[in-house]
Each structure stands twice: as structure tokens, then as C-alpha cells.
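Check this:
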Amino acid sequence: MASSLLSSPKPCCSSANHTSSPLRPRACAPALSPFRVAAPRFSHGLAAAVAAAKPSVSCRRHRAFARPVRASMAPRRPEYVPNRIDDPNYVRIFDTTLRDGEQSPGATMTSAEKLVVARQLARLGVDIIEAGFPASSPDDLDAVRSIAIEVGNTPVGDDGHVPVICGLSRCNKRDIDAAWEAVRHARRPRIHTFIATSEIHMQHKLRKTPEQVVAIAREMVAYARSLGCPDVEFSPEDAGRSNREFLYHILEEVIKAGATTLNIPDTVGYTLPYEFGKLIADIKANTPGIENAIISTHCQNDLGLATANTLAGAHAGARQLEVTINGIGERAGNASLEEVVMAIKCRRELLGGLYTGINTQHITMSSKMVQEHSGLHVQPHKAIVGANAFAHESGIHQDGMLKYKGTYEIISPDDIGLTRANEFGIVLGKLSGRHAVRSKLVELGYEITDKEFEDFFKRYKEVAEKKKRVTDEDIEALLSDEIFQPKVFWSLADVQATCGTLGLSTATVKLIAPDGAEKIACAVGTGPVDAAYKAVDEIIQHVASTINMSHKNRRFCT
């Protein structure tokens, strides 16, 4: 499997041109010192001196002399049947953000927050929402029940899709009863029950023999079906480290007992993509009755391979993929929904024509919502949804993007519901070249001569060396100072600030005037920064405004 996945000569799907697109990149500001304050009559210089969605996806293929084209629309979502998918290329997306994702330390959500996220997951188009672990607490049971009643009965999207609502349970009657009580109100309820199957888990955690584990699994799956639940998922916990022959046997028995989905978890994120893909292929080839159930994957990210393992599993025959928004979850997290879905969209041809029912234009909103309610924010370089995922600062990359966006972007930000500050995703910084900076001037409406630009660019480089990112306001201030206005400005000589829980915040500021004279003022404010700016205002007799601010040396902050 792995060799075919890596060596297939088929190219990925192509794409439409990007259009302007959502998050304005967050700019970082310089520290308070050093700064410049322009003379009061130059407002631009003053301001900056103080601061000194479509369901189908576009993927970009580099094809010489060819214009990118929109990938063909994926077929419609097949009608839901618990143990069968009529289209062999359709992959169900099982989202467990509200269950496994909530197991991230510090990520607990209230019942109201879980309901809000569940509504968004339905709009996103996930096939199954694992809403929680009902037996874990009365509050979680109530939360899952609320989601089942509302989200589990409300059609969304053009196709009137209603997601399956799933509750997790251990292999015991108490857990299964709680799960059924929570999900039975949904139009499409599912119980997901599990028991460990690896030798290390059976011996040290369960303290049961393999024969006892098989008997429990078989009995509890049958019990779940006897309650009237038509859709039962079974997971052999730690399948990645379980004996293969034992796996085949226990899976055969739970299929006989009525399991409709067989989820294969890499519980500790131990397997490699080739290894996990082979595991799925072997289960598909060696488990009697497997044609009567859907094979699923659940990959943890302990070695950073959750997305790769999930794709390997799909390529090998799994038709349900368990994922979370932003990849949140126990320990290092889970396979990321946005990464898995966009990889399938972008590399559909190489993956044998696989597709999902996800409306990718809801990815950015879903990511932001989960960050807000979980309190877990993604790193800037996170694939697909990170702040830098569609930002370009290198001069070489910016030059390529300005000439043709497909040179450095394989996905259009539009297709994940992302809009950005400028059409090309260019972020100005110290690595930006002349082409990018001049394009920014044109974008802002400024036409200057080559000589003026060279003078401006030298000053731009000086400012960029002191800042992580250069904002539009900085550009306009530099133009005002270097080209359109005389070089009259104040500079900072010294600043001293004091603050405390009981005392007032004060600051003493010394500025050098345009004529070289030293001016000193002291002021009181709501904090040391506010006090410093009030002192500046007193000296220059003009109110200075802060464009943005960042904290340096954060390791010293508490």
C-alpha cells in the first residue's frame, strides 16, 4: 500500500485561481523603545512613529503554460445505511471533537458550548458527531441528549443532511444504558463501545484473558443492539499493538453480534503509515464477515503521524475516519479534520477517487469556534488553519506569488472560508523584497519614482529589522516621513516607569526635539504604558495613537 501511495505517477487535482480572501494577518508591533514621534502637523508620521467560501476545493498543480482549472464537483453524499456505503469511494467523517477532543487538558466545554459546536459540525457536514461520554457524568449525558434532540433531528445543507449522533461507552451495561438514553432521541443514533485488546492492556489494565475479552465484547455489542439501537460501533482499544489473529477473531465475533462499524484505533500513536495501512488491509482481507461492516480509523498523534496514518488507512480500505477539529485530543491529540479532509480533496486522484461530504468553506469558522470554546489555540504554522498557513514573507516566495499564486499555494484559502488582508497573502517583514514592497505601495494607492522608492526602501529595511511585521500604517508613515513631508521628528532619549498594586503608575519621558533640545515630562496613567504615552502627549502637545503593540521577552512576564 505504502509503495503505491508514494510512487503513483498520477498528479493531484488542479485548481481555480485564488481570489482575495478572511483573516487579516495579525501584525506584531515594536516595543515602546525606541520610537519616533513626528511633528504634530504630520498625522501619518505620528501614528506609525509611536507604534515604530465554496463547497468544492481548489488545489494547485504546477503545469507549465497551463491555467489552473476548478476540480470537478464530488458526487453527492450517499444515503446513510449503518453498515454499508453504496459508493465505495465515499469516506464518512466521524468527528470526535466533543468527546476525545474534550479530553485535552483544560479543554472542557460547558453543555451550552458543546451544543453550539455541534451545530457548527452539522453545518460543516460531518457524517457522525461523537457528542460525548454519557456515563462519565450527568452533565455530559444531558449535553449529549440535548445535541441528539436538536442537532440530531435538524436537516442542514442543500441535501438536508442529518448527522448521526454517537455516544461512547465502555463494554458494560451501565455505560451502554447511559449512551442509549442520551442518543436515542436522534433520528440516527449510534452507540460506540470499546474494550482493550492488546496484550499489555488485557494483562495490566483489564486483568482478563483474551477469551474473557472476546466474550464481553460479543455480549455487550448484542446488548446494545437489543436496546433498539440500529447502529453500533465497536473499537478494540490499542489495536495498533494487538495480535493480528486475535483482532481478526474478536472483530468476527462482534460482527456476528451486530456491530455495524469496526473502528481500529492506534490508541497510543505508535504505528507508522505503512504499518497502519497494512493493518487495515489485513483486517479487510482476513476478517470473516467484514463485508457486513464499515472499517474505521482512529489515530492518535503521539509521533506526529495521525494524519498520515489516517490517510494510509483510507487508502487501504477504511471508509470512516475519526478526526477532531484542530487535531485536539488526549496527549498529543488526534488526526486533524481539516488536514485529512483537505488532503483527500487535493490528492483525490492519487487516493483512488476518495471524497467526503464536508463543506470545506466552514473549516475556518469551525476551527475558530473550537479554539474559542476549548481555550486551545493553534500554533501559527498549523497546517490549513494556522495564522501563517497562507502568509508569505520571504522575498523569493512573494515574487512568485505576485507572478502566479500557484507557485507557492496548493490550496486556495477561499475554499476553507478564509479571507486575508490582501489577494496574495503577502506579509511584509525584513525578508520582503522590492517587488513585494512596491506592490504594497501600489495597493495602497501610492505612485512614486524609482529614486523615491530606493530612498523609501532603505528606510523600510531599517524599520523592518526592528519589527516582526510591517503594517499598512507603517508604510504610510514612512512615505509621509521620507517622501511627502520634511524629516521633522522627535526621538526617545529615555523613559522610566513605575507601577504597583497599591501605588499609581507613573512614567517620566525624555524626548529629543527636532532642534536637538531635550524635553522632559512626567505623567500618571492606568498603567506604565498609558503613563508613558501621556507624558509624550504632554511634550509634543498632540495626542499620539498606538497602532498595535507586542510584548518582548515574554519569558520574564508573569
